[in-house]
Every structure is written in structure tokens, then in C-alpha cells.
């Protein structure tokens, strides 16, 4: 790899003493190696440095009337209850008389995404063309990662209507009965 | 008849141009890379596939980890104006030197009454362990200090943008954006308290800060 210095050693024996030529070539291989190593390092660190932003919009808060709840048709909404241990319980319709009763599922590609994709097709058929509404209810045992994961799923599956709302005591009972309310 | 001479290809390549280009690139990346200050509160954010980047300016960041809440503003001028408003609201006076120090402060997590004490410490002593976090509750009164900080920071941003209106080529960047940088393992009640604090002042839009995940 490195340039060989060919006239070293016995070359000068006996013969005319040659004046060494100043300048000539400098071996730049090592320098280029180092430069590229540094380039790679800086390229990787600059692109990995900037954090991503996930935008969230909450509805306007009605301070006058706390019970001002939006009525949603039962056959349009599915509810995701975020429990502990990275698991979700979901149901379709109202909790009192669900169309699909609460079931425990996992996060990710195999779990919640399959449900969302399925319901995205099923809901317009049942509700006369109206699209799916997803209600996200994080329980106090869920962590920030769970919420971000779910919002990410909404983006991946492209659910147009979803909201984050407060969990109620009946739903906490559901989580308890499914063993998803542990510390 | 002369023998055909086999030309010997030279083994050495001239690397000068390559070296030039690589150092040019290196210089570019070194200069564009922004040195990241070591953050006081270490937050391990969750990951998402969201393509949006966090804006560099006009941003207030609320960091949460281990139940501690820190607040920081990106723009040093906004920081100064915010502190002025806070100093009036909580009747705590700051000296010119303290304002200058506060302008350099990226994030902090102390109640307003302990802020002077924090500013009196040198940079390397403002560790996480001595900062108990900004007090937050579900009210809209002075006891909810995060509420005041966010509100005053938003006001200061408007004030600052207005003061720059006359400048040539100035485009109003709009109101301050709020980002919540929460630890992946932070329990929801702490997050909820912050979300409610923001909603109470009609800051209904905000961002969660996340890392980038390649696969979905």
C-alpha cells in the first residue's frame, strides 16, 4: 500500500553522491484514510443527533361544563385501553354492550396494527360508509412509550380520527380483570 | 527489430485531489455539526417512525424523567424576557448578572424561589441531583409553576417576534411551539398532568420528542 522508497540502502554505495531531491511525493494514503474515517463519524453523528417530533393535537377544553362529552355512534368507535406490561385491551362499541367485548392484545405489527387494519375495513361497512374513530385511553399504569407507540400506529395505519381521552373506573375494572393493571 | 517494451503501470496513485476533497467534506461536517451540550436531565425518549424533525427555534421543551420536570427555551432572548415576566409574577428580583446567566441556561428544574441559588452555582455544579424539578399541579394558579413558565415563555416569544418586526427580511415564525420530552418509562399520570397544564392555557397542540425508528 505505502509507496516504497526504492533508492534506500545500497543504492548510494560506490556511485556518485546524488543530491537528494527535496519535495517529490508524499504518501497521502494514511491521511486520506484518517480523513474519511472522520467524515464518516461526523456524518453519522449529525444525522442521528436531531430528534423527531410527534405532533399531537388535543381538543379544546371546556372549562364551564366538564360533562360536555361528544356523542359518537357506537358502531364507529373502537377503544384502546393501554394497560401495564406493554399490553392493550380493546373493544368495539360501548363497554356496557360491546359489539366486540374487550380482548387483550400486544403492541406492534402483529398485535394492534392487525386489529386497526381489520376495523378500518369493517367499520365503514357497518356504519354506512363512515370511517373509524379510535379512542385511546391510557391508564395510569401505562408508560410514555405505550402512548407514543399507539400514536405511531395511528400514523402508520393512517387512522384519520383518533383522540386521547380519560379512562373511567369501569374500564379500569376491565384492565384489572385481564391482569393489565400491575405496577 | 526492437523488443516490445511492456509498460509498467505505476503503483502509486496521486492522492492529492482525493485528500483535498475529503478534507473539504470533513471541514463541512465539522462546522455543521452542532456541539450538543450535555443535558442536565438525561431522558431516554421512546422511538417512533414520525418523519418530522423538532424545530430549532421558537420552541419550549418540557423534559420529564423520574417524575422530575425540567423546562427549557431555545432562544436566549426569549429566556431573558420570560424571566422578566416571571420575576414580576412571583416578586423575585434578579440582578443583571443573573439575567445574563439565565440566558445561558439551557434547561432548569427548580422552583422560582430557588432559581437565584441555582444561578449562583457554576455550570458544572448544576447537576440533576440538586434540582428537584419544577412544581406542577392541576390548578391554574401560581402554585403551578410550569403553567406560569409556559405561559410567560409564549408571551415572551410573541413580544420578541414583535420587537423584530421592523427588521429587514424578517418573517414572523409564529407562536412558540411546545414539546414534551418524556422518558419512555415515565408513567402516564405525570404526562397527563403536563398535557392538562398545556390544555388549560389552550396550548392544545404540542409535540412528543422521540427518537427515530427505522423499521415499523
Write a compact overview of the structure shown.
The complex is a heterodimer of chains A (183) and B (216). Chain A is 32% helix and 21% strand. With 183 residues, chain A is an alpha/beta fold.
Strand order of the largest sheet of chain B: 1-5-4-2-3
Which CATH top level class of the largest domain in chain A fits?
Answer: Alpha Beta
What is the strand content of chain B?
Answer: 5-15%
The count of domains of chain A is 2
Can you tell me the residue ranges of chain A where pLDDT is under 50 for at least 5 consecutive residues?
A: 7-12
Q: Taking Cα atoms only, what radius of gyration of chain A do you get, to the nearest Å?
A: 32 Å
Which class of secondary structure composition applies to the elements of chain A? alpha/beta
Helical content class of chain A: 25-40%
The number of helices of chain A is: 4
β-strand number of chain A: 6
Low-confidence stretches of chain B: none
Name the helix and strand elements of chain B from N-terminus to C-terminus, one letter apiece: HEEEHHHHEHE
Largest β sheet strand count, sense and barrel closure of chain A: 5 strands, mixed
Using the coordinates shown, work out and report the CATH topology of the largest domain in chain A. Answer: Nucleotidyltransferase, domain 5
Q: Please identify the structural class of chain B as seen in this structure.
A: alpha/beta
